[in-house]
Structure prediction request, 231 residues.
Amino acid sequence: MDKLLLRKIKILKKVRPDTSWLMSQRSFLLSEISRIQETNKKPSLVLPLFNFNLLKILKPSFAIALAIIILLTSFATVGVISAAQNTLPGDFLYPVKTAVEKVQLTFTTSQASRTKLSIKLATQRIDEFSQLIDKPEKKTDLKKTVKKFTQQLVEVQENIDKLKEKNAQKAAELAKLIESRTPIYEETLIKSSEQLGYIISEDDKKEIEQDIIQALEQLNKTKQATEELLK
Prediction:
């Protein structure tokens, strides 16, 4: 095994999670498990926390989520997850960050909560993008991140449309949240596009600029959808 990787693993063993973050994540996951069990009326779902064999008969996404919750009982593992929250695409622990996001999505069954979470993830992607713009060595990650932001915007719009059918009032509340953030998203994308010429080659700039244009187009669609809803 690579010596650098071994050193990183040793460092991670010393990481200690923030107590408030730890408690909030455990509370969130446990409450969602409880709600799913009550909704489906399947008390036996409690057992996977203690019986790994039952993971085989569950849906893959649900099984992965439960496996991660089991790992949360390890203090060292929770420390790694906590440390991953401030990472950027391309960083050693970034895959841990995105894995935790998938777990949250798996357990978020309420359409309103799912919509709110999708907005939060879109904001995280644009924040990551704005930080990567000053790191020319991560131009590949920069390109991937703006695409992920666009995909996340699509999910936001799909979720708000689904919520509108179930709860128009709640959909309007979240539409206001989206409306308040779209100017920030737009400004970040435009300013980043202007900065590209100073940090990467002309060819790379053209590729990423095209991705930024697609992100702005999707942002405009999302903006129009929310404005229509608020009318």
Summary: The longest helix spans residues 168-199. The radius of gyration is 20 Å. Residues 110-231 form one domain.
